[in-house]
Amino acid sequence: MTKTLPKYQTIFLHLAFWAFVLALPFLLKYSTPPTGIHKKTVIQSFTMTEFFTIFALINVPFFYLNSEILIPKILHKKGILVYLISAIGLIVGVFFLHTLIKDIFFPGQFIPRTGSSFQLLFFLAISAAYRIMSDNLQYEQEQKEQETEKLKSELSFLRSQISPHFMFNVLNSIVSLSRRKPEKVEPVVVKLSDLMRYMLYESDDAKVTLQREAQYLRAYIELQQLRFGDDIEINFNADNLNGNKTIEPMLLIPFVENAFKHGVGMIINPTIDIDLHTTDSKITFEVKNKVNRQYKEEKDGASGIGLANVKRRLELLYPDNHRLTIKDEDQFYGIYLEIS
């Protein structure tokens, strides 16, 4: 992931760069007269060192005028022709300043223009390169932030979609129960309040512990056991879970909902097996229910929302770290989920 440097680090790097540029003429000059070199040559070397140090100071505003004004405000908005004219004008202005400094502070001294010309072209090039790199980094950062916001918005929508879908299924269950076993309605509503507490106060967290998610699954399974009683065999295993493992809240419940929705009804000896366990490196979750292939269910508008929702959340949250396998066999339908 591309990250822009913190502001203080950027300022420090700029100061370090310019300190090096200003020190460079002193680093390259003769500190003592070498053998065979006339003293006049050494004096001229000192003069040129001082001149190029002053000229290096001029390069500071030259660098930032190009990178902060000419490129973003002229090249990007008015085109390359206007930029080239402006850059040439800036170079001519710096050359005029160069001549003025030479005439005032170094009268009579011969100082070749090739060195200062090279400096100007060099700083023009690196200021342009700096601006292009800076713009590219900023663009990538903005794109990344926009993508992150988009994913957050989509995840928020997917989470908000799960709760009404869950309530739709549970309320249908309560209506059915009130007709067949009205005495069971009250404990089911009490159990539902526990589930809603989790949905309201914990499902907005980015992650919850796997143990907490397992407690939520167990509460939902107990609610269904109140509804169906001995009419269905439910096997739920979630023992010895790693207490440090976390997971997206309400990620697993759609699979269990789906098992109860399609694994109960016109089925002889309905059975639902739910297994959740962990290793040091991964979470595995398996749900399997009996099905009746000869019985065709009538699908309503909410059918498939839960599974489509959880598949998309897995793609967003664990893009390269999950494996979802659906087993649609003769008498059984099952899912196997692995998150690493």
UniProtKB/TrEMBL annotation:
Membrane-crossing residue ranges in chain numbering: 12-31, 51-71, 80-101
Any one GO MF annotation of this record: phosphorelay sensor kinase activity
Coiled coil: 134-161
Top-level taxon: Bacteria
Gene3D superfamilies, A to Z: Histidine kinase-like ATPase, C-terminal domain (3.30.565.10)
Domain Signal transduction histidine kinase internal region stretches: 154-231
Keywords: Coiled coil, Kinase, Membrane, Transferase, Transmembrane, Transmembrane helix
Listed InterPro entries: Bact_2-comp_sensor_kinase, HATPase_C_sf, Sig_transdc_His_kin_internal
Pfam families for this protein: His_kinase
GO CC aspect terms: membrane
PANTHER family, alphabetized: SENSOR HISTIDINE KINASE YPDA
Name of the protein in its database record: Histidine kinase
Source organism of the structure: Arcicella aurantiaca
